[in-house]
Amino acid sequence: MSISITEDIRSITDLKRNTSAVLKQVHTTGRPVVLTVNGKAEAVLLDAGEYERTMNAFNLLKLLVAAEEDVKEGRVSEAGKFFREFKCDNGI
What we know:
Elements lengths: L8 E3 H6 L1 H11 L3 E5 L2 E6 L2 H25 L6 H11 L3
Parallel strand pairs: 1-2
Antiparallel strand pairs: 2-3
């Protein structure tokens, strides 16, 4: 997800005056809009679907970081052994 510095940076005042147009832009382009106050970035407006996809990817990344740490620390087992133990422990 990238932004266009000429189209995707808007002031809060612009958002207030042109809410429909800004929301249409977010939905049409799929890009976030950076909202500024006194010329400084204050918030980011993102399409709800894109936000959900981003959060899903972030949550998956958090799981991968934990898994990578397990591998570094040697907390691993062979898949076959794991599944045998899992089946036995769960009566499968």
